[in-house]
Amino acid sequence: MVTIKDIARVANVSVTTVSRALNGYSDVNEKTRQKIVRIAKEMNYSPNTLARGLVTNKSQTIGFLVSGMNRSANKDNFTFEVLSGANECISKRGYDLVLFNTTTSKQREKTYSQLCRERRVDGVIMQGMKIDDPYLKEVIESDIPCMLIDIPIQSKTVGYVTTDNVLGAKTAVNYLIGLGHKKIALINGHDDAYVSLKRKEGYVKALKEANLPIHKEWILDGGFLEEQAQLAAAKLLKSHPDITAVFCASDLMALGTIKAARAMGLDVPRQLSVVGYDNILLASYSAPAITTIAQDKFQLGYQAADHLVDMLEGKDVSHVSTLTTDLIIRESACPPPITVAYKK
Amino acid sequence: MVTIKDIARVANVSVTTVSRALNGYSDVNEKTRQKIVRIAKEMNYSPNTLARGLVTNKSQTIGFLVSGMNRSANKDNFTFEVLSGANECISKRGYDLVLFNTTTSKQREKTYSQLCRERRVDGVIMQGMKIDDPYLKEVIESDIPCMLIDIPIQSKTVGYVTTDNVLGAKTAVNYLIGLGHKKIALINGHDDAYVSLKRKEGYVKALKEANLPIHKEWILDGGFLEEQAQLAAAKLLKSHPDITAVFCASDLMALGTIKAARAMGLDVPRQLSVVGYDNILLASYSAPAITTIAQDKFQLGYQAADHLVDMLEGKDVSHVSTLTTDLIIRESACPPPITVAYKK
DNA sequence: CTGAAAGCGCTAACAC
DNA sequence: GTGTTAGCGCTTTCAG
Lengths: 344, 344
What we know:
2 copies of one chain form a homodimer.
Chain A: H1 4-11, H2 15-22, H3 30-42, H4 49-56, E1 61-66, H5 78-92, E2 96-101, H6 105-108, H7 112-119, E3 123-127, H8 134-141, E4 146-149, E5 158-163, H9 165-179, E6 184-188, H10 194-209, E7 219-221, H11 226-239, E8 245-248, H12 251-263, E9 273-278, H13 281-285, E10 291-294, H14 297-312, E11 320-323, E12 326-328
Parallel strand pairs in A: 1-2, 1-3, 3-4, 4-5, 5-11, 6-7, 6-8, 8-9, 9-10
Antiparallel strand pairs in A: 10-12
Chain B binds a DNA duplex through residues 1, 3-5, 13-17, 19-20, 23, 27-29, 32, 47-57.
């Protein structure tokens, strides 16, 4: 493995000069630089980032900390898209991503700061954490720069990027209301997720603004899981057959809800309208295709990475982004059955 | 940041002893060890892997080199599942994964060995490479241990894990033949992919064994892309309306083929049977659900990682695995229309 | 069982 | 412009 020492010897200069030349410092003779660069290339030199990191105290690596990258959790490619976005940006800006997966017990034994310090990551991007995850508390206490996805915590060293979940949910419910629905249920994720709280807020807001009553019994949790949502929806539709629409806090849960409806002989959308959230790939391929609120997951990761590197480079701008969402109208929602007319 | 030096001072021993105690060497007094361990814990010490790596010349990191992790390429979560599997195994065995994405131009400028040497990765896992990717040639020349996904190259330092693509394809086509089909086309990926070559081989083999003629015009490439496959299928079905079944080398292309058929007013499966490959998530959700050959992508990654670490630990076993596939029967294939009876 | 010393490859004062 | 020197945090001979 060739080192700057080898280059120095061949070029007949000191290692310092080699270091400076290769790192683009200005205070080195242009001819010497060219010579050094040429020799380095000839000798097929690559810098040792470990050694460099040891002295600069910067590793040029970002930790990507995600909960649940295990076999079962791949149904939506949310994590992967965020990861892709983050990686795209990070590598453009000269860093590399290292994966921290908190689901393997091996890593769980270590604290957040242990994980980070061992690898000397310069910063971390966190995704998929529950609101009460112990790691989250550590993030706040730690002074390692961190960008959170969908968790609004902010300090000198922590920022976040999220979407406007209240507005997104409101848009979905308003759409249903606009279609003529008055009895709209909510299948939410779970209270450990920030986005669930916000989406419920949007749901409530939309109903209130339309002067529609809020029924607590119409709000159920589906844990962001298709099967669990199916169970919840089945229960809901059985005990409240007058419901004509349900807004689900994820597309996966919308899928589950549709299955539940179908199992009861209900046609979607004619007898029951369903609107999802996320716009996962499945949403456009399922039958019926799911009307949903789209969020740009790639962008979520990209922006998080961008903010993080900004932070590392000392740019003192706000480290918060809120992305917008889009209503994607497809086939799973339509006006309610005309029986509602009898209500007058 | 607390170092072993700090611990040494507090514990009143030398750094050597601290190092040995913390690394579980046997030649240190049990009492001293306990004291050191206790102090390390109290001081919240984490080892600096950069420093360690610098001297041991091992970084405990594995590079995951993938082509195409960009925004557009996330339609099947193939890469993500392989990644998850690899990460699961790697982290169990005490390593971490660093992502090398060859789609960003930043990384493309660097050669394979540069990428690896800069980060001093101990080994790499490669996925999604085309057969003529320049990186691939470098892998062979390099002495860095490398496990390939779906590319059968083998040497002292390189191994691979793949599935039995010939058998998989053969199984698919045999299934179609068993259903009564005699005119079976193939929408393949592209010749730059090893798996395509093999799947074509399986297709041909199955037809031959059934004494069915091979028509070159019935074999088209869809580039593993839905849209491209749709175009290819449209062309194929238009010029050869007597085809009753098509085997696609990926589910995404099966989706495209179904769309093409539908656009021509053909019912799938009643007028055209379609069998896919991969068993991506979409396959079970689309309408009709796609009959396909399933491969365990998570396992692909897991095994690659396992072999790689074996290699790094000097275990001199074979570094090759061939996983089996499963035929998943769903709704996109059925016996051909009875019109074939007229053929007699 | 423990310590002193060297050195991994690199950067960064500081001097010339 | 360039070289000398020290040192990042750790492991590893080699002595004792």
